[in-house]
Amino acid sequence: MRSTGNAKAGGDGGKVDLHPVSSAICNGEDLGPFVRKAFATGKPETLLSALRHFTRAKELEIEDVCRDHYQDFIRAVDDLRSLLSDADSLKSSLSDSNILLQAVGGPLLSSLDAYVEARSQARNISLALRSARLCVGLLDLCRRANAYLSKDELYLALRCVDNLERDFLLDSPDCEEGEGGNGAGGVPSPTLRRMLERQIPAIRAHVERKIGKEFGDWLVQIRVVSRNLGQVAIGYASAARQREEELRIKQRQAEEQSRLSVRDCIYALEEEDDGPTGAGGASLDGSGRENSGDGILGFDLTPLYRAYHIHQTLGLEDRFKLYYFENRKLQLTSDFQVSSMTPFLESHQTFFAQIAGFFIVEDRILRTSGRLISKMEVESLWETAIAKMVSVLEDQFSRMQTANHLLLIKDYVSLFGVTLRHYGYTVDPLLDVLSKHRDKYHELLLSDCRKQIAEAVSADKFEQMLMKKEYEYSMNVLSFQIQTSDIMPAFPFVAPFSSTVPDSCRIVRSFIEDSVSFMSYGGQLDFYFVVKKYLDRLLNEVLDGALLKLVESSVHGVSQAMQVAANMVVLERACDFFFRHAAHLSGIPLRMAERGRREFPLKRARDATEELLLGLLRTKIDDFMLLTENINWMGDDYSVSGNEYANEVIIYLETLVSTAQQILPVQVLKRVLHGVLSHISERIVGVFLSDSVKRFNENAVSGIDADLKLFESFADNQAHFSTNSEESGAKELREALAEARQLVNLLLSNHPEMFMNPVIREKSYNKLDHKKVLSISEKFRDSTDRLFGSFGSRAAKQNPKKKALDILTRRLREA
C-alpha cells in the first residue's frame, strides 16, 4: 500500500514512530502526552510533520473507498427515483378512498357522538348518586363519632373513626380519578377528604389525652385506695388470727378436760358463714371491684382496663404497658419513703398497709387484665419491695431501744406477711429479720422487766396483803394459781404474802406473753424452749437478783425476813405457773413442760432469805443465852422448871411460832425451827466450853437437863409440822438438840467411861466431839468440892460419878 512506505517520517535523529500516534487517534485517546513529549524534546515540527503525513494517508484511503463503491451509489439513486413515483400513485389512491369514506360515515359518526354524550351523562348521574350515598354514610359515621365523644364513649368513637379511615381514606383513589374512575369506597369530595385527614388524627389525639387524664386520676386514686385496702386486708388477717387463737384456746381447754376426765369431754361444732370471698377475705364482684363484708372498698379497676383497651385500639398497647409499669414502679418507690419527721412507730402501719395494698392491686391486675403486666414484672417489683422493707426494718430496729415498740412493729409485720403470703408472695426475708432481732428484743424486754421488778421490790412494805373483794383475790391469787386451796376464802382475806408477789407475777406473766407474742407467727413453730430460755434468765438473773439484793440490803428484822421467806414459798408455786403458762401459750402439752422443769430458779434468794431469818433468830437467841451468866454452876440444888434463859427462849419461840405459822408454810417453818433448836444446842454446849464456866457440878447439869426437857417438849408440841406422822416430826426437831442432849446424858450417866466404847458411842453419843467432851469433863466437880472446902473433907469418900469422869478424862487424854 501507499502508506506502507511512509510509516516513518523525519530524519534519522528525529524519527517519530507513527504507529502509537495512529492508534491513539483511532481510539480517540488524548494526544497530550505525545505533544508534551515533542515539546519536551524540543522537536514539535517532527510531530506536526508526522500528523500531516497521517492526514494525507487517510485522505488517500477515503478516495480509494469511494472509487471502489461508485457503481453501488448509482444503482441506489435509481431505486429511490422509482420508489418516489409509486408513492405518489399510492397517495392519490388513498385520498380518493378517504373522500368516499367521509361521505359514507358522516351520519354514523353523528349518531355515535350523540350516544357517547348520553352515556357520559348517565355515568355522571350514577357517580353523583353514589357520591351522595357515600356522603350520607360518611356523615352518619361522623355524627355517630361526635355523639360517642359527647357521651364519653371513647371506644365506640374510635371504632367509628377507624371505619372512616378504613372505608374512606385508605382505599380511596385520588380526587381527580374519583370523578371519572370507579373509586369504590373513596371520599367523593376533596373537601371532605381534607376534613377527615385533619380531624381523624385530632380525634385520636383527643381520645388519647382524655384517657390519659383518666388513667392519671386513677393512678392518684389507687394510692389512697391501696392504703385503705392494705389496712382492711391486714385487719382481716388480724381478725382471722384472733379467731384462731380463740379456737386454739377452746381446743386446749377441751384437751385439758379430756386429760383430767375422759367422761367429762364436751364437744362443740361451730359453723361460720363464709360467703364467696377473694384472697385476703374480701368478696369479689364481676366488674373487678373487691368488696369487704362492710361494703365496697373502692377497689375499682375499670378506668385502668378502659385505658388499656383504648390504647390497644389505638395500636399503642406496648407503649401503655411500659408507661403503666414505669408509673407503678415510681409509685412503689415513693411508697418506700420513710419520713424522718415522724417516728416509725407511728408511721409503720401506713407504710406496710400502702405496700400491701399495692401488691394486692397488682395481683388482681395480673389475674384479670390479660397481658397488661407479666408475672415476671410483678415478681421484680416484689423483690425490690422486699429488699427495701428489709433495709427499713434493719435500720429502724437497730435504732429502737424499747421492747414494746419492737413488739408492735413485729406484730404488724407478721400480719403483713400473712396477708401477702395469701396472695402468693414470698415473705421469708421479713421473717428472717424478725428472727435476727429476737435477742435484741428479749434483752430490751429483760431490761424493762428489771426496772419494773426493782420498783416493785423496793416498794414492798413487808406487810401481808389485805383483799376485801373477790375480784382482788382473783386478780392477785387465782390468776397466778398460787392459792393453797380451791375453796374461796371469806372476805376480807389476809394473804400470807406481800404486794411484791402479785406485782412480780404480773411482770413475769407480761414478759411471757410478750415473748410468746414476739415468737409467734415469726416462721418458727416450736419456740417454747426459746421462751423458756429467756424466762429462765428473767427468773434467775433479774427476779432472783432483785430479791437477793432486797434481802441483803433492806431486810433488818425478823418479821421482815419472815415475810420475805413467805413470799419465796408463794413465788415457788408461781414459778410452776410461769412455765405452765409459757407452755400453754406456746401450744405444747403441759407434760412436756413439766418434763423439762429444773430446780427452783429463785433458790439463791430463798436460801439467802432463810439464812438471814435464821441469822436474826440466832442473834435473838444469843441475847437470851446471855442469861446463862446467872446460873449457879456449883449450886446445891437446881430448878425443876428450868433456868431463866430457857423459859425466856421458850416464850419467844412460842410467840414466834404462833406468828410464823400464819404466813410461813410448814416446811419453811420446820426448817427454821430446826435451825433455831440446833443453834440452842450448840450454844448450850458452848456455855460448858466457855471460859466463864470454870467448873460445874451435877446439880448444874441437872438444871441444864431440865432446860433441854423444856426445849424437847416444845419440839414435841410442833410435831404437827411434819408431813409424815407426828412421831417422826417430833423426832426430826428433837434431833436438832441431839448434841446438847447427848452431852447432858453423858454427864449424868453412872458410867460415862462407856463413851470410849465405839459401839456405845456410835449409838448414844454420835454427835459429841471427844475434844469437847475432854474439855467439859475436866470442869466437872463434885458438890462437896468447893473452893477451900477440901481441907475439911480430905478424908471424905470420892463421888463414884466423879471417879468415872476422871477415868473418862484420863482415857481421852491418852487417846
TrEMBL record:
User: What is the organism of origin for this protein?
Assistant: Spirodela intermedia
Give the protein's recorded name. Answer: Exocyst complex component
Q: Does the keyword Transport apply?
A: yes
Described by its record, this protein's role is as follows: Component of the exocyst complex involved in the docking of exocytic vesicles with fusion sites on the plasma membrane during regulated or polarized secretion. Involved in polarized cell growth and organ morphogenesis. During cytokinesis, involved in cell plate initiation, cell plate maturation and formation of new primary cell wall.
**Could you give one GO CC term from the UniProt record?**
exocyst
Q: Which UniProt keywords apply?
A: Cytoplasm, Exocytosis, Transport
The Exocyst complex subunit EXOC6/Sec15 C-terminal domain sits at 429-779
Q: Where is the Exocyst complex component EXOC6/Sec15 N-terminal domain?
A: 51-234
